Every structure is written in structure tokens, then in C-alpha cells.
Amino acid sequence: MSFLGLGRPQPSSAEKIAAVESEMKLLADLHNRLTKSCALKCVPNDYHEGDLNKGESVCLDRCAAKFFEVHMKVSDILQKETQQRGGSAGGSFFG
């Protein structure tokens, strides 16, 4: 007798695939927003070099770290609100 999933219906393969596809879309959107936001802030439009200089690299690292920190805080808040309303918050890679 297995105790895994006791009392809960298990998702079908199609539901699992849909959940993974949804997660991948969210991650792609997160990546695109981070890239756009941090590039606008840290990389000038007039390129003088083929590679990022040290200042641009440091700026991008800090920007990405702050972006993820804010994302995690917002995810935590939304998850707590969902749990307080009695819903179940699904797990994701970032919150």
C-alpha cells in the first residue's frame, strides 16, 4: 500500500506536461524581463567594445541579483495570500 498522494487525485501526463510548459513560459518571461530591464540600466546603446567592460558586468550582476530578490519576495507574499484564502499555491522554481 502506497501512502504517496493519499487523498489527492494524481495529475495525468497531459496535466503534468501542461504544468511544465506553463512553468517554462513563466521562466522565459522572467528571463526576458530581467534581460531587458538590466540591459537598459547597465549597457549603453553606443557600443564601443565587443565585450562588456567591468563596470557593465558588475552592474548586470547586481541588477540580476536585485531582480531575483524582488521576484522571490513578491512570490512569497503572493503564496502566503493564496494560502490564507484557502487555495493551494503550486510550487515553482522561483517561488
Detail the topology: elements first, then pairings.
Layout: H1 13-42, H2 54-84
Subunit structure: Heterohexamer.
InterPro entries: Tim10-like, Tim10-like_dom_sf
Main location: mitochondrion
What does this structure look like?
- This protein has 95 residues and is mostly helical.
- It has a domain at 14-43 and 53-84: Mitochondrial import inner membrane translocase subunit tim13 like domains (Helix Hairpins), CATH 1.10.287.
- The protein contains two helices and no strands.
- It is elongated.
- The two termini are 33 Å apart.
- The model has no long low-confidence stretch (mean pLDDT 85).
Compute the CA-based radius of gyration: 19 Å
Q: For the record, give the distance between the C-alpha atoms at the N and C termini, rounded to a whole number.
A: 33 Å
| Helix-strand makeup class | mainly alpha
Order of helices and strands: HH
- Please estimate the helix content: 55-70%
Poorly predicted runs:
none
Mean pLDDT: 85
CATH architecture of the domain at 14-43 and 53-84: Orthogonal Bundle
The tally of helices reads 2
Number of strands: 0
The main sheet comes to: none
| β-strand amount | under 5%
Shape: elongated
Which oligomeric state applies?
Answer: single chain
The CATH homologous superfamily name of the domain at 14-43 and 53-84 equals Mitochondrial import inner membrane translocase subunit tim13 like domains
Here the CATH topology of the domain at 14-43 and 53-84 equals Helix Hairpins
Name of the top-level CATH class of the domain at 14-43 and 53-84: Mainly Alpha
